[in-house]
Amino acid sequence: MKVAASSLRKGAVVDMDGKLYVVLTAENIHPGKGTPVTQLNMRRISDGVKVSERWRTTEQVERAFVDDRPHTFLYQDGEGFHFMNPENYEQVVASEDVVGDASQWLQDGMTVTLSTHEGVPIALELPRTVTFEITETEPAVKNQTASSSYKPAILSNGARIMVPPYIASGTRVVILTEDGSYQERAKD
């Protein structure tokens, strides 16, 4: 299916010369003089090579058909990350390249959106937020303002984040998955 280059967004899959590429970043550039262009940074799905392409915004690009479905994360082993389709209970194994940095936020039983092309996983989309427990952090310092200062903390998954000074060890916190930043204390 042909689409305008300017309509491509992060996570879209394009077919160039018979090879599939997943879009990592898409930027529409409108110079003061000249033709507007779309700058795409992409990763080739077959071998992980990153490429950068520039098209005029009106040029047509072949978009590959991708099946986006919710899957449940089961576990990780030497083969990769195992996901199950909750509708038909089929299991799919995604490689380390497909999961990437998202691996630190995966939790057993978490529902994610897994993009597949002809049955092969090519991209993963996490929920917007996840909840983890703080396992280690410095004690709060008296008379420290909450607005300007943050302190380092280690989550139950081993990730390091910055939290407000009033957060103590054992507190459950909500984390934004897109950048790994502290959002709020968990309501549970």
List the SSEs and their pairings.
Elements: E1 2-4, E2 13-16, E3 19-29, E4 37-44, E5 50-56, E6 60-62, E7 67-76, E8 81-84, E9 91-94, H1 96-99, E10 111-117, E11 120-125, E12 129-137, E13 151-155, E14 160-163, E15 172-176, E16 181-185
Antiparallel strand pairs: 1-6, 2-3, 3-4, 4-5, 7-8, 7-10, 8-9, 10-11, 12-13, 12-15, 13-14, 15-16
Domain Translation elongation factor P/YeiP central: 68-122
GO molecular function: translation elongation factor activity
Pfam family, one: EFP_N
End-to-end CA span:
46 Å
Q: What is the number of strand segments?
A: 16
How many distinct folded domains?
3
Proportion in helices:
under 10%
Given this structure, which CATH class of the largest domain is correct?
Mainly Beta
Q: Looking at CATH, which topology of the largest domain would you report?
A: SH3 type barrels
The average pLDDT value, as a whole number, equals: 86
Instruction: Report the sheet-strand fraction.
Output: over 45%
pLDDT under 50 segments (min length 5)?
none
Q: Strand order, biggest sheet?
A: 9-8-7-10-11
* CA radius of gyration: 20 Å
The helix/strand series, from N terminus to C terminus, equals EEEEEEEEEHEEEEEEE
**CATH architecture title of the largest domain:** Roll
Largest sheet: 5 strands, antiparallel
Q: Label the overall shape.
A: flat
Number of helices: 1
